[in-house]
Design brief:
heterodimer, A: alpha/beta, 2 domains, two-stranded antiparallel sheet, 9 helices, globular, B: alpha+beta, eight-stranded mixed beta sheet, four-stranded antiparallel beta sheet, 33% helix, 22% strand
């Protein structure tokens, strides 16, 4: 643990609360297993002593800003999480002046499970190109040197090479395990529809059966709603209790959008995602 | 009287059970261990701490058709779903067996849930005592134990070269093979899970309903359904009629009090709109309403929700927090 970094986060959080700049600070504290981290909400200056930061702080806390719309909150944001801030700013879901961003330079997060911390860096961190958050009001720990691998989408390329039948079989098997707990949706900073299509009765998009075909429909629409919007935090895959490799779907869509529109979600708060824009030159001529 | 079965005896017995019944056992899958019907004994995972999902799904499946309606020549016929085969649920730990005993209370209470009752009647439970406990286990505080035989038909305890076999019920006795010899050795003493102060908490739950603690706890809750779906005692479900070209099916699927739509009523009123209120419902049902109705806490201490919650909402911590909240209240 980088104690100096943690002290900077605590000091900043404390002064923000003492000065009344924000109502609360969303950060991390040690989980009940004593090994991993969990989200933590500090409302009193004294509570900031519980804040920590280390390689187990995987949660993308930006999601919680959606519960706090209109309130002034500070939030601890890693470089990858900052893309969620840009996404939500762009989509008008949060207001910049209501959010105080405590950015952290990030050494990369490791794979964890309850009561266990591995040495293995999460896949998304291995190819992360960001040395600091894209947007912040205060940077704790400064910018970090990173030796990132080049993003080649090798997993996606490998999957694309398989036949349609093989891919279909693979995904039906994966979705067959889905228990429709919706943790993937609940944790996603890009999922904020007031009523999710999965719970809409009129019109009825998808039924309640926890069975391969309906699970497939649920997961397909979920990932398509995030095409060009997924910021790659991979929280959905991390929280999935049955280990469905959702990153493979999300990254396939990310790769396609990058190739077709030269766009990656969350890099710039002012540039809207391709599916929320319409350019005149994209208009098809009659019969085209 | 305790009997002894060598590892070979056990395999032969399971083989013979497979000839006449469905055998559901823990199987190691790609990313999880789950109870599922097996076709051969080799599929069974004998060395597991706890399965990802509890075995409740055998009795209350994630999804099932309750009945269908068929129309033919102006006649309407109701076709019930039938449970046609006997089954053995093999290898469940005592905590999971207690979970089934707890689900029995609401689901077998008259008039009872017909499909659940049928599956319960036709399934024998063969338990496996725990050789070790995990840091998240707390079964002894919840009225069970790693070697508790009370909710199974047969309990197996692993010893060197084989298993001590305890036939607990007549159903269990009838299932056992002939020729097992008496076990005269010592049955290993069970491991000790940690204790949580559950008794103290139940008595004060009523006074904490409006405590700000729930909204604070709700802050980090994602309101997914993981805790309810991995839980061996959560039994809430949703139902919907599927209609297609004159054929109707009434389907039910797991649902949980953490879902946004769970408490939404016709007309749009929702008595539980905040995250804290929904989360509070989970703990009140487990620790107050269920005990008041059925004289038992609706938690078996299996620790699955502790292990699976993505944001570490830990029922053991909630229980001890509530005790502290209460102490602080009565002290002030």
């Amino acid at each position: 643990m980088d104690t100096e970094l943690i002290q900077q986060i605590r000091d900043k959080a404390r002064s923000l609360l003492e000065e009344g700049t924000v109502e609360g600070v969303i950060g991390y504290e040690r989980a009940s297993d004593g090994v991993t981290a969990r989200p933590f909400f500090a409302y009193k200056p004294s509570a900031t002593e519980r804040l920590i930061f280390d390689e187990t702080c995987a949660h993308n806390l930006v999601k919680y800003l959606l519960d706090r719309r209109g309130k002034k909150m500070a939030v601890v944001v890693k470089p990858c999480d900052s893309r969620a801030i840009n996404l939500l700013l762009n989509e008008g879901q949060i207001e910049r002046d209501k959010v105080f961003i405590i950015g952290v330079g990030c050494p990369g997060m490791v794979e964890t499970s309850w009561n266990h911390k591995s040495e293995t860096l999460q896949a998304k961190c291995r190819s992360c190109q960001l040395s600091k958050p894209l947007v912040y009001d205060f940077l704790a720990g400064g910018e970090l040197e990173r030796q990132a691998e080049e993003e080649t989408y090798s997993d996606v390329v490998e999957a694309e090479a398989e036949s349609l039948a093989t891919r279909r079989e693979f995904w039906l098997e994966q979705f067959g395990r889905c228990i429709r707990c919706y943790a993937c949706r609940q944790v996603c900073p890009g999922c904020y529809c007031p009523v999710c299509f999965a719970e809409r009765l009129e019109p009825l998009w998808v039924g309640i059966r926890i069975a391969p075909e309906e699970n497939e429909l649920w997961q397909t629409i979920r990932s398509f709603h995030l095409a060009g919007r997924c910021i790659g935090c991979n929280e959905c895959e991390r929280v999935c209790p049955v280990g469905i490799p959702l990153s493979l779907l999300n990254r396939k869509l990310e790769k396609d959008v990058k190739e077709l529109f030269a766009f990656q979600a969350g890099l710039d708060a002012d540039e809207p995602p391709p599916f929320a824009t319409f350019k005149k030159e994209e208009k098809l001529e009659l019969g085209e | 009287m305790n009997l002894f079965a060598s590892k070979n005896d056990l395999i032969r017995w399971l083989d013979s059970l497979l000839q006449e019944r469905i055998v559901i056992a823990p199987v190691r899958g790609q990313a999880q261990i789950v109870f599922q019907p097996i076709s051969k004994v080799e599929e069974i995972a004998f060395d597991f701490d706890n399965t990802t999902l509890s075995p409740k799904g055998w009795f209350l499946p994630p999804t099932e058709t309750l009945f269908s309606v068929q129309r033919d020549d102006g006649q309407v016929e109701l076709v019930p779903t039938l449970v046609e085969q006997d089954a053995v649920l093999f290898g469940l730990h005592p905590c999971d067996a207690k979970g089934i005993a707890l689900m029995d209370k609401p689901l077998l209470q008259e008039p009872g849930d017909a499909l659940y009752r049928e599956r319960r009647t036709r399934t024998a439970l063969v338990g496996l005592a725990c050789r070790q406990v995990q840091p998240e286990c707390f079964c002894t505080s919840m009225g069970s134990a790693p070697d508790d035989p009370s909710n199974v038909d047969i309990l197996l305890t692993e010893v060197e070269d084989g298993y001590v076999v305890q036939a607990v019920t007549e159903k269990g006795k009838a299932l056992l093979p002939q020729g097992l010899v008496e076990y005269k050795g010592k049955v290993p003493s069970p491991p000790k899970p940690q204790a949580v102060p559950i008794k103290e908490v139940i008595s004060v739950m009523r006074e904490l309903f409006n405590d700000p603690y729930w909204e604070q706890l709700g802050d980090r809750c994602l309101h997914c359904n993981i805790c309810a779906y991995v839980c061996p005692t959560c039994y809430c479900f949703d139902m919907r009629d599927y209609t297609d070209k004159g054929k109707v099916e009434r389907v039910r699927s797991w649902e949980s009090c953490q879902s946004r739509g769970f408490s939404l009523t016709a007309g749009g009123y929702d008595p539980r709109t905040t995250k804290g209120e929904r989360l509070r419902q989970r703990f009140y049902h487990k620790l107050l309403y269920f005990p008041e109705q059925f004289q038992d806490v609706a938690c078996v201490g299996c620790g699955r929700c502790v292990r699976a919650c993505p944001v570490n909402i830990d029922i053991r911590e909630v229980i001890s927090d509530l005790q502290q909240v209460m102490e602080a209240k009565s002290g002030s």
